Amino acid sequence: MHDAIKVLTGNAHRSLAEKVSEHMGFALADTAVTTFSDGEIMVQINENVRGADVFVIQSTCNPVNKNIMELLLIIDALKRASARRITAVIPYYGYARQDRKVQPRVPISSKLVADLLTAAGTNRVLTIDLHAAQIQGFFNIPVDHLYAAPVLLDYIKKGSFDDLVIVSPDAGGVERARAFAKRLDASLAIVDKRREVANVSKVMHVIGNVEGKDVILLDDMIDTAGTITQAAQALKDNGAKRVYAACSHAVLSGPAIERINDSVLEEVITTDTIPLDDKCSICGKLKVLSVASLLSEAIKRIHEESTISSLFE
Q: Is the whole model's pTM more than 0.90, yes or no?
C-alpha cells in the first residue's frame, strides 16, 4: 500500500473536501468524527491507511477551537494507524492574525497552533493565503503556501469592468494589490485608514485616482467587514463608478453580512476556503469561487513528488 493516496476530512468543510476528491477521481476515505454530549470529540478511521500517503482537509474556521481539535485528533489517529505520511491541508489557517506580540504578556497563537500540528504527527502542511507569509517559518516541517490569486484573477478577467483600478484597503496590502493590478493591466490606489481599536477602523482618504472608474478592493480576508465597507464608501465618495471587493477568505463574523448588504458594494468575490452556504442565502452580493481544483492539483503533485512551484505564482 506504499503508493496509496487517501484524502479525508473532518466536519469543518466537508463540501470542499468532496469537491477535491471529485476532481481527483475517488471518494473520501471513510472517517467518523463525532461529538459526545460533554463536548469531547471522537475520531475513528474506518478503513486501512497503513503505509498510505494521507491528506487531511480541514479549514480551522469557526468554530475555530473545535475544528483545530478535530484536525489534531484525526492526525493522531492516522499516526497510530501507521500512515506513511500525513499532510494537513488547511485552506484557511485559523489564529493566523496572532502572529506576533503586539503588547506585553500575550501569546503568539499561530506559532502555538503550528507546534500542536507538528506534535500531533503532521509531516507536511498545505495552506492557502496565510495572513502573514512568515508563519511558514513557525513550522519545522515543509509548508506549501498556495495563493488563491489564480482563481480570483480568472474570474475578474472574464468580467466587464470599465477602466479598472485595484485598491488596497490599507497600506499593508499594497504589495498584494500591486501584483493583481500588474496582472490585470489595471491602475493602483490605496485607502488610508487608521484603526482605533480591534475590529474597528476609520477610513481617512483615498490615494490615487478612482473617479469614474470601476474599482476592486482587494484583501486577504474579510472578517467583520468594517474596513471593506468603509473603504467602499470612501471610494464612492471620491467618484468611483462601481465598487467591488475580492478576498481569499470570507470569515464574515459578527455584523459582516448586514454591513455588506447595506453597503455600496456591488459584489464580494471570494473563495470557498471557508464554508459559506448559509451566508450566501442571506447575502446576494457574495460570489464564491472554488479552490478545489487548485488543492487537488497540489495534492496530486505532492503525492507524485513533483514540483508545485508553478502553483505558487
A: yes
